[in-house]
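Subject: sequence -> structure tokens, single chain

Hey, anyone have a minute? Need the predicted structure for the following. Not urgent.
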Amino acid sequence: MRLGGGSVTLRPDTPPSITNKVRALVDDSSGGVGASVIFTDLRQPLSGLTDAMVHSAATFTGKITKLPDRTSIEFEGLGWWLDDTPNISISETAGGPDDWVTALAGNLTPGTCASTPTYSRTFPANTATRREMLNAAAAGGGWEYRIMPDGSIDASPTLFSTTPTVIVTKKSTGSTGSVRGISGGIVSQELDVSNLATRATAVTAGSGSSIVTGSATQAISLRNLAGGAPEIGLVLDAPSEAGGNASDVAAKFLALQEVRRSVRVSSLTHFLPQFVVPGDYVWVYDLAAGLFDTNNRINFEGQIINPVKVRLLSYSRPVEHGGVYIRPNAAVPEYLDLTDYVEFESGETSWEVGGWTPHFGAVNRSNPSIEGRATDTVGSVVISGSVAYNGASASGDGTLTSYGVTFAGTPVLVATVSQSGTGANNGYYVKIDSNSATQFKFRHYQTDGYWDDGVAGTINWIATGTLA
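Reply:
Had a minute. Here:
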């Protein structure tokens, strides 16, 4: 789910006025607002284009992260913005891709998102990055997401093309019907059958007898030494998954335990994003290299062939043409065109195609983590958060506040008041009115012992205990 990165080099004769503009944008200590580098396959007339038009023409947008020297620019994909860890719990009950993306987009923005399938889960505060949460929600819910060049996040179970429109062969670059041929050499290939399984069991939240598990099974072609159907079980350690998700998580995970075919291909086709993007399926055919599948049958250039259907996982290509622009972080940015100063490269485009496995958690046939949870209690965790109160209430009562997790018993709770009215924080304090394994209620007072009924503020709280 994380977009890649790279670098671009400017010519040595690039004017200092140009490189100084880039440095001024990136240097936070001098008031730089930050910037992105945008690549297009064809140079764009910036004077006649809006910000949205440039983004629609972009093949890649990267956040500038480093300037090693005057003429070098390093960048990472916009997934960089998802690598912050929220200090509040993130929870969705029957949340669709649209709900999860809205909750986790952070510094990015929701794009085109489906409303189903749904997935329920709570991520406690300060435990995972937004990207890790999105990955887990997508894997558990059975959908995928991608970050577009404008920083929007699209999410759907049908986000990528499953019908190949590109076939990689050794000699052909022609087209037959809707299938375009790309000439490519097979650099290497790997066939991995080590993760085949007939059964998966998900061990979800809890400890000891309170652990909830769920299982799923599937049939495979592999046979044991006697020629019979084998029993091969995998265990998925998912301590932060809700028990109600156990069987569904096991089924989704098991469906991904199959033959993994990883192929690296090289080609001279640099306009790849015009035809296919990472995540889409492609055909790969090389009879001599063993890349064929008799289950597939297509007519290509007058021949019936049997290509392998795999996903394009990633590609890397030289910066050898098109436009290169710097976009300052601003609502209405003033673009800087670097195209005339870029040290354009040459070389091949490298593709990686094969099977893709989203990450659920640690998987091991002998899992010490699971064994420990089955015999011991879960160690203490610290959950923090804040809740606003309205002093207009004559009783001084706060609302019921959820921890976002379920503790094994009543946690130790510490709460302080931050008042926003006259008098700053002088003379106000908070008292816990009730506290349980899932929520608490508070009252806020003035120093004279009366309920505070005239000032609004915020209650900051920290709860420590063991999870149920």
